[in-house]
UniProtKB/TrEMBL annotation:
One of its GO terms (molecular function) is cation binding. The lineage of its organism: Bacteria, Pseudomonadati, Pseudomonadota, Betaproteobacteria, Burkholderiales. Residues 152-203 form the Alpha-amylase/branching enzyme C-terminal all beta domain. PANTHER family: 1,4-ALPHA-GLUCAN-BRANCHING ENZYME, MALTO-OLIGOSYLTREHALOSE TREHALOHYDROLASE. This is Alpha-amylase/branching enzyme C-terminal all beta domain-containing protein. The keyword rRNA-binding does not apply. InterPro entries: A-amylase/branching_C, GH, Glyco_hydro_b. It comes from Noviherbaspirillum saxi.
Length: 235
């Protein structure tokens, strides 16, 4: 499980090293045995902890801040070793608490109706999660045992790690940023020389398809989770 949930206030210090340490459970003999999650029925039950979007911005769970933090957290969940668990509604940016009482009012019901286009942020987020799951299924490296932390940059709030299949390859590098400003010319050492192809950029799904998502061509990174693979994926 990822680190204890707390309010991600803009002023709060975020420990990227702690996030890196939570990517896998060292006490388990194999990484795939870990059940990874950031929301569960115990934590987001009514009157307990808020869901990720509202945890990030309790005043507006549809703000850019809430959306970007939700993509960051969910992206890491789906790229980390182990078996990812999504709680109901998490895949489309649900911010309501959960209740097992069918008699509760609509404050605890999922926003199913908003997925018909009335809430663009929800449909954009669902597309992002769907594509991230598809990427995990297509690329064996994201399901393998290999994990190596490449960089933990506390100053820039950046984290990078490598995934692969032991003894085979299928390497993927995941770069995640909580920096609120673009970082142009940011240099990151890759596992080995060669061509690395960007196969997922979470910023692309904000007001999908956004033309302003910084890619590897300009090395712009701001509040994003992205994947680069070598060799390129075959669809």
């Amino acid at each position: 499980m990822f680190p204890p949930r707390r309010r991600w206030a803009r002023e709060a210090g975020i420990n990227m090293g702690r996030i890196a340490d939570a990517l896998w459970a060292p006490r388990l003999p194999q990484k795939w045995r870990a059940i990874q999650y950031i929301e569960s029925h115990d934590e987001v039950y009514r009157d307990r902890s808020p869901r990720i979007a509202r945890l990030a911005d309790e005043s507006n769970p549809r703000s850019w801040y809430a959306r970007s933090r939700s993509r960051f957290a969910t992206g890491l969940l789906l790229m980390a070793p182990g078996m990812p668990m999504l709680f109901m509604g998490q895949e489309f940016l649900e911010d309501k608490p959960w209740s097992d009482d069918p008699g509760m009012d609509e404050r605890f019901l999922l926003y199913w109706a908003e997925l018909d286009g009335r809430d663009r942020h929800m449909t954009d987020f669902l597309r992002f999660v769907s594509d991230a799951i598809r990427l995990r299924r297509l690329h064996a490296g994201l399901r393998g045992e290999g994990l190596r932390i490449i960089s933990v940059d506390e100053g820039n709030r950046m984290l990078a790690f490598q995934r692969w299949v032991e003894g085979v390859g299928h390497d993927v590098v995941v770069v995640a940023s909580l920096n609120e400003n673009p970082l142009y010319g940011y240099r990151l050492g890759m596992p080995y020389a060669g061509t690395w192809v960007e196969v997922l950029n979470s910023d692309f799904y904000d007001h999908f398809p956004t033309p302003s998502a910084g890619g590897t061509a300009d090395s712009s990174m701001a509040s994003t989770c992205r994947c680069m693979a070598s060799p390129p994926l075959q669809s």
